Batch of 2 targets.
Target 1
Amino acid sequence: MKTISVNLPGRSYPIYIGTELLGNAKLFEPHIRNKKVLVVTNSTIEPLYARPVVDAISSVADVDTFVIPDGEIHKNLDTISLIFDHMIGTACDRNTTVVALGGGVVGDISGFVAACYQRGVPFIQIPTTLLAQVDSSVGGKTGVNHKLGKNMIGAFYQPQCVIADTNTLNSLPDRELKAGLAEIIKYGAIRDAAFFSWLESEIGSLLDRNPESLAHAIERSCQNKSEVVEEDEREAGMRAILNFGHTFGHAIETWLGYETWLHGEAVAAGMVIAADLSAKLDLLDQTESNRIKQLIEKTGLPTRPPTGMKSKDFLELMKLDKKVQSGKMRLILLTKIGKAVISSEFSHAELEHVLNSSTAD
Ligand code: NAD
Ligand code: GLY
């Protein structure tokens, strides 16, 4: 097992990465303060992975399980409300630990529940998708979508620990694996050129699920993420680079009504647009922009927005992006592979031009 620390004042925590971790009671014990635990999972993951987790926690606490419906479309306040009803109805108190067992959707929902329930209860992340193991379970962003905008309601709330059991990836559909690779490519693009080159040469073995390659990719990603979060936990500045491709990606997800495309797929297409814009502005060499597109293509991820989505749709939806400050749009752009900047130094015409060419039939 490998442990990566996220060091934050008063709320540091470990990320455990390895195999056979779900049923390891010793891992849970130091992170459960009291005798009551609520495992939140979904209807797909519960039959696959709840048993070992519940058994392990049972040796240190009383465990209850709450199963939510599967899907991004349920990442909303209605689901939050169902969980609160259950928690209040079963007399969960301030020391009840909420355990998120699942992908990013379960993690974001459960984290927000933990942040709000009685003004905050302890929280553990057990990510079971590649995307959740490399990104969403780390760093404390929690929340839900609104029909008008992605992740519009939420809180920063750090977990007690993250337990990433890579064995869970064995049951993950290929499409979900690729969606996780999108966020892994992101880290290389924004701050780790050597990792990006490694990904270019190892993408085949990652797609073949070579365990060593996957473990390396997860560790490198968590290391990158924890360094960014340590520097800027609440996104006062540089943390925003983790949103490379996301402003465009979130617009795609909202336009599609949080159905059809996976988050990682939308981010992949978004990264290509962001790289294109960086090249158009002469910030990034065209060859480097091409390398990003080629790696995304080789991964089998989309490099263009969904059919029918137009530049005006992007521009309308992007107004709601959380990086907009005083009405000014800010985007994450690249100056080279491995170096991202937060910029509002582009004209409406330049943005529209790039969106027009990426949405052209
Ligand atoms: P997801 O949670 O919807 O999981 C994808 C699918 O895989 C679901 O159907 C799920 O039930 C299933 N699944 C999960 N684990 C499985 C397993 N081991 N075997 C088989 N099936 C499994 O999607 P995701 O890609 O994990 O997460 C996407 C979400 O994460 C989005 O809502 C996105 O906004 C959010 N996100 C949050 C952050 C953050 O910092 N909080 C970062 C990135 C993404
Ligand atoms: N996924 C973006 C962030 O954690 O900041």
Note: The chain has a mean pLDDT of 96.
Target 2
Amino acid sequence: MGLVVQKYGGSSVADAEGIKRVAKRIVEAKKNGHQVVAVVSAMGDTTDELIDLAEQVSPIPAGRELDMLLTAGERISMALLAMAIKNLGHSAQSFTGSQAGVITDSVHNKARIIDVTPGRIRDSLDEGNIAIVAGFQGVSQDTKDITTLGRGGSDTTAVALAAALDAEVCEIYTDVDGVFTADPRVVKKARKIDWISFEDMLELASSGSKVLLHRCVEYARRYNIPIHVRSSFSGLQGTWVSSEPIEQGEQQVEQAIISGVAHDTSEAKITVVGVPDKPGEAAAIFRTIADAEINIDMVVQNVSAASTGLTDISFTLPKTEGRKAMDALEKNKGGIGFDSLRYDDQIGKISLVGAGMKTNPGVTAAFFEALSGASVNIELISTSEIRISVVTRADDVPEAVRAVHTAFGLDSDSDEAVVYGGTGR
Ligand code: ASP
Ligand code: MG
């Protein structure tokens, strides 16, 4: 029996009852002979509430202090969880990210892990303890200041610790039974996926699926750590995310042609209208955006109307960066040369993901047919080897997701998708 890292999200430890339930689960794993490291998130919506509070005292809180504040959320849950485990007659010790050896760069609010030195965790485990670690936080190598890894970062903490401790598996406990073929909050007939490859999971994550963060899956792939996503509210098997298909009974789970449908309504679209159709224009636009440190997603350039010699360029980006991008472009209007800017935040993106589309003709056609059947108009299209994405009106997204899900035969016979907790905040 080896070492397991378990991660419990905010909705699993939302209140005292939740913490006691999780404590029992951890003790179960320990009784089964495992060494257990449990990574926890802040209770319920604590992180959002702390951010609200910070914004009440300062419209743009200092990054260093915001990190100091937010890491308190995870400290509360780790200490309570250790107490609850002791109350069950087992020994547990809690550790902050810094104590657990999570070393990061010095970028506040979205630090990257650069090393994990879990000496204290190892010692604690060897003494027979269950180790509880605060997720989402670390310490900067250069400044020694406390950092956070960005929203949802506890998953990354868990995978990073699993890699550093050479764990058998990283179990991510959440408020749904695993990774589904679509967001169960939108598609009632979404089906639980038994196994999915790192590659397909990465595409789903970058297309808006929120169950696992892109960075966490990337980390797991790099160190080849299998992730088991499952619910802390039920005893069911969840979804395995790994490089090779898992065995189930005698059979090997097969690679699906289509893994799932993801959607994202967190992006906005900027259209640069009246751009001269000559070399260097797109470069000037996207250099401006890059210099503002903004990541973009899709890009399209419309055909130039020959009579004017002008063209339009549209791109999508996170809504949260919208203001900054518009300001940066406006400031460089003279240098770039365009007529005007249009900003649209009522868009949504729907993506179909699956490695099988490489070898199965007709996937793109069937995707567009499903959208047309639901009378959904397509505004932008982008593809990768294993993904097709379209931008539509935000209002059309739920209908479009359901139509595509049905068209690709992904609907389950029963309503098996249960959402156990969380406010979806
Ligand atoms: N508590 C942090 C957040 O809500 C980190 C996490 O939940 O993973 O983003
Ligand atoms: Mg959270």
Note: Residues 63-87 form the longest helix (25 residues).
